[in-house]
Amino acid sequence: MADSGAIVYLEDLESTSTTSEVASLVTMETSAVKTEVTVAAKKADDAQNKAAPMKRQRTLMDMFETSTASKKPKRTASGSSFGLSGDSSVKVTAAQAVVKVGGFQTLNSIPFSMASYTKTLSEEQKKLLKLECDTMGLSWLKLLKDEIKKPYFISLKRFLWEEGVTSEDVKNLKIFPSPRNIYAWSRTPVGKLKVVIIGQDPYHGLGQAHGLCFSVPPGIAVPPSLRNIYAEIKAEYPEFTPPKHGNLTAWADNGVLLLNTCLTVKAGNAGSHSGKGWEEFTDKVVDAVDKYGGANLTSSGSSVKAGYGRGVVFLAWGGWAAKRVAKLDKKKHLILTSAHPSPLSASKGFLGNGHFKKANDWLEQRYGPDAMVNWCSLDAAQ
Fold first, then answer.
1. Beta 175-176 vs 265-266: how paired, if at all?
2. CATH classification of 177-371 is 3.40.470.10, yes or no?
3. Catalytic residue among 62, 201, 253, 287
4. What are the start and end residues of every segment in region (Disordered) (predicted)?
5. How far is Cα 117 from Cα 115, in angstroms, rounded to an integer?
6. What is the mean pLDDT of each run of 10 residues along the chain (382 residues)?
7. 287 an active-site residue?
8. Boundaries of every domain in the chain
């Protein structure tokens, strides 16, 4: 976890960085924003000058710089301004320009300070949300920090606390996965995300669930649904050799979000934690993907990172998963639905659906060949 007092701009920053490193990243982004705003301003200025050639028009950058010149940059609890170093007024101006031009801040320009955030929490919230602050990936936490303070989520956390989920290190619980793995899916940074696979419930057998849908830790037998997933990959990629394990961590590291709709379950009792609040929370996770998923992927043939989501692939298997993505824009995202890979339904539309190759074809066209997922690489050692 990064230093609790650090301002985090870069979405996938998972370790403490020096101020100069972070400032450099912010400067790179804001420079690009200034260029975009200047071009837009010039076009507007040219159009206005044609209509009234004798009247001087102020550029957007003139207005931004004038409006912010008298404003001091905000400071965090650790004493660092959002600009961190150098010309703070330029950095604040650029951040505002992002809002004006793009409608919202780009992913990397959203600041987050753990120290400042925890100061906004009540004593109960500090206790109940410690797991989220300690284990959730920073790129997700800074987007969901307000969501986890809402009454429904605090109610969910009270329920889990009573069930024994009191810290990431608690042992011998009858709740799966273990607390430290509840947010394992968030190891996939939102800005590098390419594909979302939506599951329903964590596995409810001992040792099976580890926070990634359809995946099991090394040493656990491959579940039937995952065997069918392997069979489909083999049909699409004949060179694939199905592994003897069911650990999909390599996919998570390659930009695949493996998200269950409910993030916990009681041992031996499928669906036991449905209706407790997880569904509402994971809906917000999907909303974050819609807004920022793949924000740091470059476009095909370009090195430019848009800073906002330009579409990802959703693999929704089964009616339950299909409902979770029904609201999404099918022009922005590639949304592939089929029957569930369970042995009860795999032969009714999952096997033969071609989803893995379709996903890569779309990713290659949208973002270039480097964005394709290596479905065949599943290293058990990860």
1. antiparallel
2. yes
3. 201
4. 65-87
5. 5
6. 51 39 40 43 51 44 41 36 33 39 76 94 98 96 98 99 95 94 96 96 94 97 98 98 97 97 96 96 97 88 78 96 94 97 96 99 95 91 50
7. no
8. 19-111, 177-371
